[in-house]
Amino acid sequence: MTVDAVTDLLPSPPLAPGLPLLGSALAMRQDLVAFLVEQYRQLGPIFRVRALNQEMVVMAGPEANTFVTKEGTDKFSSYELWHKFGLEFGAEQHLSAIDGENHAQLRKLFKPAYSVSRLLADIPMLVDIAEAVLNRLPVGEEIPALYLFRMIVTEQLGRALANYAPGDNLQYMITSVRFALNVYVTKQMPNFMLKLPVYQRARQHYLKMGQDIVAEHRATTRTTKDLIDGILTASQDPAFQEMLSSEEQIAFASLGPFVAGLDTAANECSFMLYELLKHPSILEQCEAAADELFSQGLPTQEQIRGHGVLHSAMMETLRMHSISPVVNRIAAKDFAFAGHQIKKGQNVIIATTVSHFLPEFYPDPYTFDIERYSAERKEHKQRGAYAPFGIGTHLCLGAGAAEAQIVLVLATLLHSVRLERVDPQASLRVRNDPAPTFGYSFRVRLREHRH
User: Domain for residue 60, yes or no?
Assistant: First the structure.
């Protein structure tokens, strides 16, 4: 009997209970990960959920994380979910939308530019950018924490990877990426949103920014090559011409660093600041660590990548507020998992962060505990226990660089200023827009300039 025949004999995954017509839509919208943790406890590592007119198969917990890492290379497709997002900006093929050998080739091309060593190659510049933003804030100024970090993170990534500071284009970037992702990928907005003048104007500026970056690199020769230089060189290589075959695809690939900063590092910096302000004793430890990093001038790469208190606070922030709490894919073929069948073409949710909230891995999992990562505990090292950046072949390419950037940004902030939450008693709700975020609800006030 063939493998396919055996798979066909397996039962479908059990169905999570839900409301008539709505299914599990309300529970998933209210707190997706908490809902998935509850279903994992009741139904096991694979189950189905219905939300309105959609049905999805959920693979969850350490079993799913281990399976996808070891056996998932050829079982999932990203094309159906990400293709239209790229087309919106003229990119027929882009890293998020392709699989297989082409995807592996593009990752290999981009990997050096998105590495920790490349990002931290000019620490004085990165610190200067953060300090310049912070120094512009007068004492008593109130600002959404996310916008503060977006100003810092996007300029750092832009200057380090593309020799370009977004400046006044920041809001155009935010609008373009947010609308397109929410329409095509997360499907939280209707298609007509892309017809609105506010989006069309933002999209034009966003695409013009990509064109300007490419034009500047074509007109300039630098000793140190960056991401854009690598893209331009690869566009002349027959191996990459299918993926970088047009000016639109080259420009879109060149905008990658800015997309990465908007919804990853900036959101995580915001979450980390929130947790530190919520836990004064940990904040005090991190502030002392930040001052130590700057005590001899500027921190070194080795210090930023070290496993001190700031690193532990960053790791715990990623556990509780993951950049990618689930991974959405389409089944590329029939396959079996945990005694059940998954059919080709089914929508699959890989619930990578269910493990983050299982007490067998993390005692008292909803408590912010930075000691989890100590040499004695190493809770995150258990198999399948920690996956804040997604999993599988599309694992976040800049995961290591993002961790280092979060540590450096928070260290610079804690050393330079003291911030306080504007309304510490207000309840904040995490929403997906398109990534998990407090949005602009989490506001902070500058208490003092320290250094």
Answer: no
269 labelled ligand-binding: no
Is pTM beyond 0.90? Reply is yes
Q: With respect to residue 10, please indicate whether it lies within any of the assigned structural domains.
A: no
Q: For each of the chain's 451 residues, which pLDDT tens digit applies? A: 455 555 678 899 999 998 888 888 888 888 899 999 999 999 999 999 998 888 999 999 999 999 999 999 999 999 998 999 999 998 888 888 888 888 888 888 888 888 999 899 999 999 999 999 999 999 999 999 999 999 999 999 999 999 999 888 999 999 999 999 999 998 888 999 999 999 999 999 999 999 999 999 999 887 888 889 989 988 888 888 778 888 999 999 899 888 777 788 999 999 999 999 999 999 999 999 999 999 999 999 999 998 899 999 999 999 999 988 999 999 999 999 999 999 999 999 999 999 999 999 999 999 999 999 999 999 999 999 999 998 888 888 888 999 999 999 999 999 999 999 999 888 898 888 888 899 999 999 999 999 8
Task: Domain count for the chain, please give it.
Answer: 1
Phi, psi torsion values for 50, nearest 5 degrees: -115, 135
Q: What is the CATH number of the domain that holds 184?
A: 1.10.630.10
Domain hosting 287: range is: 72-324+388-449
In a domain, 40, yes or no: no
308 within domain boundaries: yes
